[in-house]
Amino acid sequence: MEAVKTDKLFVPALPTLWPSMLTGRRAPSHFMPFGARNVRYFYFARNAIWTTVKMLGLDAGEVLMPAYHHGVEVEAVVDAGATPRFYRVGSRWDVDLEDVEKRIGPKTKALYLVHYAGFPGPVEEMRRIADKHGLPLIEDCALSLLSADGSVPLGTTGDIGIFCLYKTLPMPHGGALTVNGSRQYSLPEPPLPPTSSTFSHTVSSLLQNLELRGGAFGRSVRGMVRGLGKGAVKAAEIERVATGTQHFDRRHVDLGMSPFAHRIAQAQDLEAVVERRRRNYFFLLGRLRDVSAPLFNQLSPGVCPLFYPLVVDNKEQVLERLRARGIEAIDFWKYFHPACDASAFPEVAKLRRSIVEVPCHQDLTPEVMAEVANVVRDALVPERPERKNVG
Ligand SMILES: Cc1ncc(COP(=O)(O)O)c(C=O)c1O
């Protein structure tokens, strides 16, 4: 399902929930983590990371992590008791494998690889380094659900796969931990999240969908319901456990995934999701490569892009312009975790100043993408210096 063209551009950052997804159901999927033999579902990916540190007994040791990180995955590792150490990532999101190996020391207890926005990191090479040093490999696919490196699904090479579901699929919440290989861990089933929280996220996503499809009418209904909803949430003291937040909160570390979220996952046409994201990415690549040098000039087979990483010089200004025109662009990974010395990783510091996340998800039609491309092109035009009024 895709949105129809409406009067004003509305391009939400995440895909929205279509009413038919509340009742639809498809055959079990082979995609990770749904097809994994050994999987535990959580409210967030961060809970899966915290649990991994405890489960593997890394809490008294060091975990070697990329200097290019979100920050919340590092917070989860720290909260669970481990110490993060950082390795170099280059200006094209490329992991410096030599640096990884150089930084392994007696206290290193695990290697941590992040696959950025669906683009596969060097997981085979990291596997080899991990095996050589007898370390477990954690493969963070929080931004890379449904993505593969050729025929190898991301999250299947590491000892552990970490997934976030709600960034790629229109789910109210959802994360997963998969254990690969033969080792078995007995993990308690996490408690269900508050129903009110699931309900609140679901309604928000349905309203976004209404706006996406309903133009001016949908927009005014959404505005009205949001106003009422905020009051009701406050009045009823509904606990809304926010997703997509910057920081780790120990109070939510146990929360699992609701059966309702599982149901929505089962209603998804995952092959179509991958195909549409790739189509939209290619479209932007073709329309933008002459105004902004692409970070990736191609999309390898199997890659499911989470967004289009737009490289800009004037991030704040571009973000402001895109948002003013109805595109929910996101400031991608602005901050280092405080445990990471920014001055030691200049390429990462530059990336943090220059990547804007432009949506290319499954709800966006070719017509909408054409408008997105035009708006982005406009936003990239440098501001003309103000003309002085002479005379
Ligand atoms: C690399 C990475 N790992 C883990 C997470 C945590 O995901 P969640 O919000 O599901 O906890 C994020 C969040 O953006 C992330 O970017």
UniProtKB/TrEMBL annotation:
GO terms for biological process: polysaccharide biosynthetic process. InterPro entries: DegT/StrS_aminotransferase, PyrdxlP-dep_Trfase, PyrdxlP-dep_Trfase_major, PyrdxlP-dep_Trfase_small. SUPFAM superfamilies: PLP-dependent transferases. Pfam families: DegT_DnrJ_EryC1 (PF01041). Keywords: Aminotransferase, Pyridoxal phosphate, Transferase. One of its GO terms (molecular function) is transaminase activity. Gene3D superfamilies: Aspartate Aminotransferase, domain 1, Type I PLP-dependent aspartate aminotransferase-like (Major domain). PANTHER family: DTDP-4-AMINO-4,6-DIDEOXYGALACTOSE TRANSAMINASE, TRANSAMINASE. Belongs to the DegT/DnrJ/EryC1 family. This is Aminotransferase DegT.
